[in-house]
Amino acid sequence: MNLQKFLLGLLVLLGLGTALAAPSVDVPNELRLTHDLVSQSLREYAQGKSQQAFRTARSAYLDHFEYAEPPLRVLNPDLILEMEYRFADLRNGMKAGQPTGELQKIAGDIDGSLRKAESIVSGTGVLGPTLAATGGFTILFREGLEAALLIAAIFAYLDTSRNTQLRRAVWYGGAAALLATALTWALATYVLSIAPVSRELISAVTSAIAVVILFSLSFWLLQQSDRRRSVEFMRARVSQAVQSGSLLALGAVTFTTIYREGFETVLFYQALSVASGPVSVYMYLGVALAILALAVTFLLLFRFGRRLPTAKLFPVLVSVTALFAVAFVGNGVRAFQEAGWLNVTNLYGRLPTIDPNVAALTGLHPTVETLGAQGLMLLIYVLGFVYARVRAGAGRQNAAGKLERS
User: Fold this and answer.
1) Taking the domains of the chain in order of start, what are their residue ranges?
2) In angstroms, how far apart are the furthest CA atoms of the chain?
3) Which residues are listed as membrane-spanning (predicted)?
4) Of 208, 232, 282, 357, which residue is the least packed, with the fewest Cβ within 10 Å?
């Protein structure tokens, strides 16, 4: 037994010695070049250039990934073996003339493994996990806080009634909405995993929808009048349900109010989970912290009846929401590029390289198209916020003028 341990240790030392004696390799750069060539091979295959696509895919493995293998093999041999099979599946699929969608799924798995490999070599650092945790926390806390305030508004309306069954119907409706949200998450995850389209296209469409909703939410949160109208509309629906005497109708109002927030949460987390990749565990840490924060919020609202400083809190949440919308724009454009729907003007080598996890979570990919889309989105946000401020100031001046005249 001791002899076996000695021989095993000797082999490990020899393996490490060989790796140390090998020429220095820029592993992150080789992995990025591998990613670019895999994406290029898919575009060539989609254009009918199957032979050229096969040669490009082979070059991605032989001319770049193989150079990154020695240090990675020491750190995670299982990942290397897995990737060898995936590269072989990609080349064999091109030889066999498989549909482009099938090859895009294989390429998506390769891309995920490349990101994991780069994280193994470079380390996750601090910024990537921090961004993932921040996103996980902000999304759930923002949506949960909005739901809590709406439920509080419903209970405030019901305070005029001593009918305990009405309050029970609200809680049942809220619980049903939470259950429906969990089922929606499970269903969405399953459907997306078996969808007959590429992972890149799914990511692109999900990011695009998330951006539209986040963009509208950002400015809606800033407009106090719009939020008041939303609460008044919800109270009117509650009033109709109470007057009809139907507990089911009241529960349905609560269900739709909460489930709308839950559906948005599922959509945002689908986009964020793709971006988080190897640091997704930190996203779930943010989710756990958000659940804890929401528990405290619910306790303060419904147990002690305390008011929360939402006027100061919402601008912070709006700012973080806007930043994630800009990130999703970059990721969405990048996904459309990898799916072959948009051109790619690479800026590799011209811009400083950043950690792949940070790039995925911020959407800062080194292409003209992704950075241009993010710049445009950021400009729209700046102009929109300035417009909202000017409009709010004008509204306050008009209100002050009316008070003076009265």
Assistant:
1) 24-122, 127-405
2) 98
3) 139-158, 170-195, 201-222, 242-259, 279-301, 313-333, 371-388
4) 232
The answer to whether the beta carbons of residues 211 and 292 sit under 8 Å apart is no
Model confidence over 41-82: pLDDT tens digits? 988 898 889 899 999 999 988 888 888 887 777 667 778 788
Q: State the Cα–Cα distance between residues 368 and 342, nearest whole angstrom.
A: 11
Instruction: Please tell me the pTM assigned to this model.
Output: 0.66
Write down the architecture of domain 24-122 according to CATH: Up-down Bundle (1.20)
Q: Are the beta carbons of 80 and 69 closer than 8 angstroms?
A: yes
Tokens of 366: 């080194």
Read off the pLDDT band of 8 (50, 70, 90).
very low
Amino acid at 266: V
Each residue's pLDDT tens digit, 167-199: 888 889 989 999 999 999 999 888 877 766 666
User: 132: which residues sit within 8 A by CB, 6+ positions away?
Assistant: 272, 276, 279, 280, 282, 283, 286, 357, 361
Q: Which residues of 297-329 are buried (b: 16+ CB within 10 A; e: fewer)?
A: bbeebeeeeeeeeeeeebeebbebbbbbbbbbb
| Distance separating alpha carbons of residues 363 and 357, to the nearest angstrom | 10
